[in-house]
C-alpha cells in the first residue's frame, strides 16, 4: 500500500510494500530523493543502529505517522506533516533500558539524490566563493557543519541541495543538542547522513523509560530560487513559528554601526608579526598582542584627531588583557584602563574590547572549579570554563562583566565586546554540568544568550560584535562582521556579507578589515553602497599589497576614509 502527502512543491510517497520513501518535484515530476528503507531519523544506540520493523502508517490530510517495532526502543515513530508549502519531519522513541544516543541517521545509506551539488554554510578561505564546491557525482564529497574551520561558528545544521535553479533545503528548526550534521555522498547516493550526538562513551545519556524527541527538520523546495532566497524561507519559518524572535522588534542603537577603528591590523604592522593566513594557526602568535598598550591607543587617537577621521568607536583587540582566559587589564600595558576609557568617552567615542570566552592560555590563573570536566583539555590542548555551571556564572562571569561594563568606581565602563576564535572548542567528550547546554550549536547559543543579556543588564546600549552565520544568534549580536580576509579581493567580503545577511536576519553586517591599499577604495565604496558598516583595522601603518613593506599611513588613505565612512 502507498501513502502520500503533498505540498505545493513536494510529493511525498511512503511505499509500504517495499519500505521506501520517495520525494518528487510536483512541478516536473522528477525524483528528488529516494530512501531505500524506512530508516529516516532512526537512532544509533550504544554504537549500533537500532533494529526496526515497520508496524503501520497513520494517514491524515496533512500528516503521516510511520510506526515501528524495535527490541531496543519502544514507540518509535517518524512524523511528516505539512507546514505551509514545506514538510516538517521528526522522530521520537522511548528507551527500553538505560542507553546512550550516538547518532540520528537522517537519511539511510543508499538514498538516491537527484541533485548536482550541496551548499554547506561554512567559510572557504582565499577565494570569493563563500562555500566549497561539493558535487554529488563521481567520487563525491564528505562534509559536516561542525565548526572546525574557525570562522562564523557555530554553523547551522542546514544543507541546501541544488540542481541549477531547483533548490532543496533540509535543516533543523529546533536547535540540536549535537555536534554537527555530517554527510558523505558519491555517485549521486548517500553513504552517510547523520546528526552526531557523541561517539560511544560520550553520547547523549537516556534513562530506562525516558522519551526522546528529535529536532524538527524542515524540507522545502523551490524551482526558481537562489541559495539566499532559500535561506530567507528558512529564517522566515524560524521567525513565524517562534523559534527565534522577529528581528524587527529588536531595538537598534545608532552608534553600533558607526565607523569603528580596531587596533589589530596596526598591531600586526607595527610589531612586524608574521601572522598566518589560516585562523587556526593565528592563536599561536602573540607578538602582535604584545605591542598593544596605552601609548599605542593614544597615538591612534592623535591620528584620529589630526586627520579628522569620523570614527565613533575604538576597539582594543587582543593584548589589552593579562592573557587569554584572564580578562583583567594587563598591569603593565594598561595600568589605568578606566582613565583611558574616560578619556575616550570625553572625546564622544565608545570603547570596546576583544574577548574570547572559549580560550584559556596555560599561563592564565583560573579557578579549577569553573572548568569543564575538572580541567579536561579540548582538542587544541586548552582548558575551558563550564559556563553552564551556576557557580561559574555567579562567581566568575557576573563579577567579570560588572567590572568591565559598570560605571561604578573600580570598574572600567566599557561599551561592549568583540567575540572571536570560537570554533571547534566544544566536544562531546567534554561534558558540561547542565545537560540542557549539550551540543556545539546549543552550547554557543546558551553562552551567547547568557553573556549578552548580562551585558545589557549592566549597560543597556552595550554592543556585541560577533562573527556567526547562525539564525539563533541573530538576537544576541549587534553587528556581524565578515571576519579576517587576508587578500585584496573585495568580492570575498561581499559574498561573506551576503551569507551573514541571510543567515542572521536583522543583524547588521560589517565589512571587517581591509589590509592593503590595493582595491581599498572599491572595498569602502562597496560597503557604503550596500549600507553595510565598516570596521577599519589600521590608521597608523599601511601596506600597498601583500608583498610590500609596512609604511606609515598616508594622506590619500585618510581622504578615502573621510569620504566613505
Automatic annotation (TrEMBL):
Q: Which Pfam families match?
A: Glyco_hydro_31_2nd
Per the similarity annotation, which family is this? Belongs to the glycosyl hydrolase 31 family.
Q: Which Gene3D superfamilies match?
A: Aldolase class I (3.20.20.70)
- Say if the entry is tagged with keyword Hydrolase: yes
Keywords carried by this UniProt record = Glycosidase, Hydrolase
The record's section on InterPro entries has: Aldolase_TIM (IPR013785), GH (IPR017853), Glyco_hydro_31_TIM (IPR000322)
Protein name per Swiss-Prot or TrEMBL: TIM-barrel domain-containing protein
Annotated Glycoside hydrolase family 31 TIM barrel domain residues: 293-423
Amino acid at each position: 500500500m502507498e501513502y502520500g502527502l503533498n505540498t505545493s512543491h513536494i510529493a511525498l510517497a511512503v511505499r509500504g510494500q517495499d519500505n521506501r520513501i520517495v520525494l518528487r518535484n510536483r512541478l516536473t515530476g522528477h525524483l528528488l530523493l529516494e530512501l531505500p528503507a524506512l530508516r529516516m531519523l532512526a537512532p544509533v544506540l550504544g554504537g549500533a543502529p537500532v533494529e526496526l520493523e515497520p508496524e503501520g502508517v497513520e494517514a491524515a490530510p496533512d500528516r503521516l505517522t510511520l510506526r515501528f517495532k524495535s527490541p531496543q526502543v519502544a514507540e518509535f515513530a517518524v512524523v511528516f506533516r505539512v507546514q505551509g508549502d514545506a514538510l516538517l519531519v521528526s522522530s521520537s522513541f522511548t528507551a527500553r533500558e538505560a542507553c546512550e544516543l550516538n547518532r540520528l541517521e537522517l537519511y539511510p545509506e543508499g538514498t538516491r539524490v537527484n541533485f548536482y551539488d550541496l551548499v554547506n554554510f561554512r567559510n572557504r578561505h582565499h577565494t570569493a566563493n563563500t562555500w566549497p564546491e561539493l558535487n554529488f557525482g563521481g567520487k563525491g564529497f564528505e562534509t559536516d557543519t561542525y565548526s572546525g574551520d574557525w570562522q562564523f561558528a557555530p554553523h547551522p545544521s542546514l544543507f541546501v541541495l541544488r540542481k541549477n535553479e531547483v533548490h532543496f533545503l533540509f535543516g533543523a528548526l529546533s536547535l540540536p543538542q549535537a555536534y554537527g550534521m555530517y554527510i558523505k555522498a558519491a555517485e549521486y547516493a548517500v553513504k552517510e547522513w547523520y546528526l552526531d550526538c557523541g561517539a560511544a562513551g560520550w553520547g547523549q545519556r537516556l534513562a530506562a523509560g525516558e522519551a526522546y524527541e528529535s529536532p524538527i527538520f524542515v524540507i522545502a523546495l523551490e524551482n526558481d530560487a537562489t541559495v539566499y532566497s532559500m535561506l530567507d524561507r528558512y529564517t522566515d519559518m524560524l521567525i513565524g513559528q517562534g523559534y527565534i524572535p522577529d528581528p524587527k522588534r529588536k531595538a537598534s542603537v545608532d552608534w553600533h554601526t558607526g565607523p569603528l577603528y580596531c587596533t589589530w591590523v596596526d598591531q600586526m604592522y607595527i610589531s612586524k608579526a608574521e601572522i598566518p593566513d589560516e585562523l587556526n594557526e593565528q592563536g599561536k602568535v602573540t607578538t602582535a598582542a604584545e605591542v598593544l598598550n596605552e601609548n599605542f591607543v593614544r597615538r591612534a587617537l592623535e591620528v584620529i584627531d589630526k586627520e579628522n577621521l569620523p570614527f565613533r568607536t575604538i576597539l582594543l583587540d587582543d593584548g589589552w588583557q593579562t592573557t587569554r582566559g584572564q580578562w583583567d587589564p594587563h598591569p603593565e600595558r594598561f595600568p589605568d584602563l578606566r582613565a583611558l576609557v574616560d578619556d575616550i568617552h570625553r572625546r564622544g567615542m565608545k570603547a570596546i574590547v576583544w574577548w574570547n570566552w572559549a580560550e584559556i592560555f596555560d599561563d592564565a590563573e583560573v579557578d579549577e572549579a569553573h572548568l569543564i570536566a575538572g580541567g579536561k583539555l579540548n582538542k587544541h590542548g586548552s582548558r575551558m570554563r563550564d559556563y553552564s555551571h551556576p557557580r561559574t556564572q555567579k562567581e566568575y562571569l557576573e563579577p567579570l562583566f560588572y567590572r568591565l561594563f559598570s560605571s561604578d568606581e573600580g570598574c572600567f565602563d566599557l561599551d561592549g565586546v568583540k567575540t572571536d576564535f570560537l570554533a571547534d572548542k566544544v566536544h562531546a567528550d567534554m561534558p558540561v554540568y547542565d545537560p540542557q547546554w549539550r551540543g556545539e550549536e546549543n552550547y554557543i547559543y546558551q553562552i551567547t544568550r547568557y553573556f549578552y543579556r548580562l551585558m545589557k543588564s549592566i549597560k543597556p546600549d552595550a554592543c556585541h560584535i560577533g562573527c556567526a552565520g547562525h539564525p539563533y544568534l541573530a538576537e544576541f549580536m549587534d553587528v556581524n562582521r565578515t571576519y579576517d580576509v587576508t587578500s585584496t579581493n573585495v568580492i570575498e567580503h561581499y559574498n561573506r556579507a551576503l551569507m551573514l545577511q541571510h543567515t542572521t536576519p536583522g543583524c547588521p553586517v560589517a565589512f571587517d578589515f581591509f589590509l592593503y591599499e590595493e582595491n581599498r577604495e572599491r572595498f569602502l565604496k562597496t560597503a557604503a553602497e550596500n549600507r553595510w558598516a565598516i570596521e577599519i583595522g589600521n590608521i597608523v601603518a599601511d601596506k600597498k599589497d601583500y608583498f610590500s613593506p609596512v609604511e606609515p599611513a598616508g594622506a590619500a588613505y585618510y581622504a578615502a576614509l573621510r569620504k566613505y565612512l
